Amino acid sequence: MTIRLLKIILLTFIPLILLSQPVPDKPFNCFSILAGKKATMDESVILAHNEDDYGEQIVNWIVVPAAKHNSGEVIRARNGAAIPQVTETARYIWFDMPGMEFSDSYLNEYGVTIASNACPSREDSARLTDGGLTWELRQLMAQRAHSARHAVKIAVDLLNQYGYASSGRTYCIADPEEAWMLSVVNGKHYVALRIPDDAVAVIPNYYTITSVNTTDTNNCIASADLISYAVQRGWYNPPTDGKFSFRKAYGSPRSLNHPVNIKRMWSAINALAANYYELDADFPWLIMPTRKVSVEWLSNILSSHYEGTPLDLTEGYTKGHPHGEDAGAICASHTQYGFVAQLRNWMPADVGAVLWMIPRHPCIQAMIPVYCGIQNFPSDFSMYDYKEALKNHFNKPEDIKNSTRGHVYWQFSRIADSADSNYLLRVRQFGTEALKFNREQFNNQESFELGILSDWKKNKREATRRLNNITEQAVRRWLGLTQKILENPPPQW
């Protein structure tokens, strides 16, 4: 047996032992990939993300309109801070998960897209003001930011003032020009780095940023005492540790060394990079992809259960479905939705920024186009309107499924449950249909968008109507196709 294979076997079975023990902080929620515009086939900036959350969840699709606000108006943070409101806030698309503090994703009218990954830190004596911020941080960015860089600056101003009231997190922030990674630590420490245009970054549930060049203020924004504080706490000793690594200094050792995080990072980096990395490698925070990446390629990575590698515990689905006891796959039992945001700077953001939504398990669902210019979703895409959503975000019903029976999310969930009940057969059916469905959409994308841009000049209302309709039509058509599959017994392949 080779040393490399032995490492793979150990890192395959250790997670099962660990996952049989209590895991209070669940250090494997969410997964993201950021790609600069020169690293992609169509020169779009791309943000791919899986939102992973345990328990029975629901996802509301909501458009919050732009608004003007009165002087003296404040936003009351969950922990008590009174944040002064700005005079105007942007329209934004909000994927709302009621009751969840860190699970929402956003796309605003300027094409600014925001998602996040839990990244536990080692901080145990955080400095906060007025209770600090949690859920509000990403929403304030979505409401106020005109670009990804602007969003980072908004966030760091708020962090300097109030601090962050959770262990740690990495925010993935992108727009049609550039992508940023903002890693925040419990308290008032943070670092934000711009993803180079020709590079790709992969983010599991630990800090991935290593070296920090605080003098490069165009590409790096960091708390003033980031390094000196780490020295003070004994997390970084320059004489023995050498070059400063944010990941090693501030990251929770348990999260950094957790096999689930290691497997996901290993899988995605080796799918993208020209160089091969061993499981015990010190993975880089940036890679140069072996070829230009695409929306389809990154959606395939979001769908991964390590097929074709020794980490595939199902052995090609012959030993059950891949969302079972092993929580270590990129597409996991608790993946509530995925998306790939395709952000292009040569069109108005309303058309150039499109978020390809993949409800529930990405491995068996089609991609649903959600254009930045959409003004509303059908009523069954949400529990309530945006005002009620903002007011009741933390008032999740105890029996969420029965209290929202007509919600479209449960139809996507039923597809996922059906696939898991007979995965080897169902994945071929759903997968074949999803592949055809997606290819048809991508083939028609250019002509559709040219038509929208033509309408934009002559009749913006009609263009908006068509943007609204394409999302609903895609959802209804996909659910219709899958219903036909569900109504018929699986064939004997």
List keywords for this structure.
20% strand, globular, alpha+beta
Structural write-up:
By secondary structure, this protein is α+β, with helices and mostly antiparallel strands. It has a single domain, classed as Penicillin V Acylase, Chain A, CATH 3.60.60. Helix content is 35%, strand content 20%. It has 15 helices and 18 strands. Strand 11 (164-174) and strand 12 form a beta hairpin. It starts with a helix and ends in a 7-residue tail after the last helix. Residues 1-25 have low confidence and may be disordered.
Short note summarizing the structure:
This protein has 493 residues and is α+β, with helices and mostly antiparallel strands. The chain contains 15 helices and 18 strands.
Task: Give me the secondary-structure topology.
Layout: H1 3-19, E1 31-35, E2 45-52, E3 60-64, E4 67-68, E5 74-76, E6 82-84, E7 88-89, E8 92-96, E9 105-108, E10 113-118, H2 136-144, H3 148-162, E11 164-174, E12 179-187, E13 189-195, E14 200-203, E15 220-222, H4 226-232, H5 238-241, H6 246-250, H7 253-257, H8 259-272, H9 295-302, E16 335-343, H10 349-352, E17 353-359, E18 368-371, H11 386-392, H12 400-403, H13 409-421, H14 423-458, H15 460-486
Antiparallel strand pairs: 1-2, 1-14, 2-16, 3-8, 4-7, 5-6, 8-9, 9-10, 10-11, 11-12, 12-13, 13-15, 16-17, 17-18
Helix pairs in contact: 1-8, 2-3, 13-14, 13-15, 14-15
